[in-house]
Design a protein that fits this description.
Layout: E1 4-9, H1 15-27, E2 32-36, H2 43-53, E3 57-65, H3 70-77, E4 82-87, H4 95-102, E5 111-112, H5 117-131, H6 136-164
Helix pairs in contact: 1-5
Bound molecules: 5-O-phosphono-beta-D-ribofuranose.
Length: 167
């Protein structure tokens, strides 16, 4: 199985929301490729890309706003896992894209994360977890990530308690 993560954006306008996903993947030292391809605006190119990426890509991350058909369209062409990130494009603030992604018909799953940048970061972590069985070093990086995260919660808790004690 390929160990590259592919991020597909429905529009270049989705990038500011999705950038944290890219940086998180880089932190895990995962090879990433980024494409702007749309289920509605460039359907032929999307199909061509997904079919051609099958061998090198281990997980697809598809981000889109509005009537977000993109992750479902990607999932239609691949047996690799597909993670969908709903983007909060106006005026429905991402509820529209969340429902489009999460309500996939049975037989074509999309692992949908939270709307916006929190979801973008989680998509990268989930992608790392999906790739980890094929990349032994990734397991250590994920464990390290989790312990650093827990440490930072502890530190913040202590800082808060000191502030409350007037320290
Ligand atoms: C979706 O439509 C894109 O993913 C984007 O979130 C939204 C608006 O696209 P632009 O008009 O900004 O290109 O397909």
């Amino acid at each position: 199985m390929g160990t590259t993560a592919a991020i597909i954006l429905g529009s270049h306008s989705d990038w500011p929301t999705i950038e944290p996903c890219y940086h998180q993947l880089q932190e895990f030292e995962i090879d990433v490729e980024v494409q702007v391809l749309s289920a509605h605006r460039t359907p032929d190119k999307l199909r061509e890309y997904v079919l051609s990426a099958e061998d090198r890509v281990g997980v697809f991350i598809a981000a889109a706003g509005m009537a977000a058909a993109l992750p479902g369209a990607v999932a239609a062409y691949t047996i690799r896992p597909v993670i969908g990130i709903p983007v909060a494009s106006a005026p429905l603030q991402g509820i529209d894209s969340l429902l489009s992604m999460v309500q996939m018909p049975p037989g074509v799953p999309v692992a949908t994360v939270a709307i916006g940048s929190a979801g973008a970061r989680n998509a990268a972590i989930l992608a790392a977890q999906i790739l980890a069985p094929s990349v032994p070093k990734l397991r250590d990086r994920l464990k390290n990530f989790k312990s650093k995260q827990a440490e930072s919660v502890d530190k913040n808790c202590q800082a808060l308690q000191e502030r409350l004690r007037g320290g």
